Amino acid sequence: MDNTVGSLRQFEVLDREKEIILGTILGDGHLRKLKTGARLEINHSAKQKDFVFWKYQELKRFVFQKPRCIKIFDARFGKTYEQWRFSTHLHDLFTESHALFYRKGGKKVVPKSIISLFTSPLSLAVWFMDDGGRRNDSYGLFLNSLSFTKKENEILQKCLRNNFSLDSRLHWVQDGYRIYIPSKDAKRFCEVVYPFVIPSMTYKLSYNPVTTSFARLDRARDRIV
User: Fold this and answer.
1) 55 and 141 part of one domain
2) How many CB atoms lie within 10 A of CB 190?
3) Are residues 2 and 101 in the same domain?
4) What is the rounded distance in angstroms from the CA atom of residue 187 to the CA atom of residue 205?
5) Which of 105, 144, 149, 182 has the fewest CB atoms within 10 Å around its CB?
6) Please, which residues bridge with residue 177 across strands?
7) Any domain includes 225
């Protein structure tokens, strides 16, 4: 039942909402701490507009305003880029999650308790839609977890192995590690997340469980996201 505590609107959070929020936190979502609590901020490029509106519909109870388009001018290249974003209102779940996933200075971390929290295929699918992609020179997939330390990535690997029966490796890319799902596990990964991946994001998958077909390979390049 809804009730109001000052400016902080509280209600019981559904399991599906918790799973989407967790996947978002592991991915591109940002929890901003304010004086009286924390809120979740969602921000994606224009090509992921459908994904932003999907998140908005799923988390609508937390949100005051619809997603809006922001135009950003990059003086280095003389180009204007569009981003779609929205923010939630304050809620205890976000405040508690901020305490769990952030340290002083605003650095996002992976808590040890993630192994018991990160058990839903929906959470994995949201994280993958946020931060995942496929190689075009193999059927391998990856999760761009570069902001996390090697130890934190190893904890996430343990989650994938224990909770989803997925083996993975760590690849060093530029200035951090990312989780790589080798070709031998790509089919299994796609079968796990496919029911939750929205149509506009299926291009990231290397295998389609419905058509039982693999994506065409292009060994000339490696699509990152």
Assistant:
1) no
2) 24
3) yes
4) 9
5) 105
6) 172
7) no
Spatial strand order in the sheet of 141-143: 132-134, 141-143, 176-181, 169-173
Among residues 76, 105, 134, the one where a domain terminates is 105
Same domain, 67 and 2: yes
Q: How many domains are there within the chain?
A: 2
pLDDT tens-place values along the chain, 225 residues long: 344 433 455 788 999 999 999 999 999 999 999 999 999 999 999 999 999 999 999 999 999 899 999 998 777 878 888 999 999 999 999 999 999 999 988 999 999 999 999 999 999 999 999 999 999 889 999 999 999 999 999 999 999 999 999 999 999 998 899 999 999 999 999 999 999 999 999 999 999 999 999 998 876 544 444
Q: Is there a single domain that holds both residue 9 and residue 99?
A: yes
DSSP 156-219: HHHHHHHHH----EEEEETTEEEEEE-HHHHHHHHHHHGGGS-GGGGGG-SEETTTTEEPPP-T
Between CA 74 and CA 87 the distance in angstroms is 23
- Give me the domain span that covers residue 1: 1-105
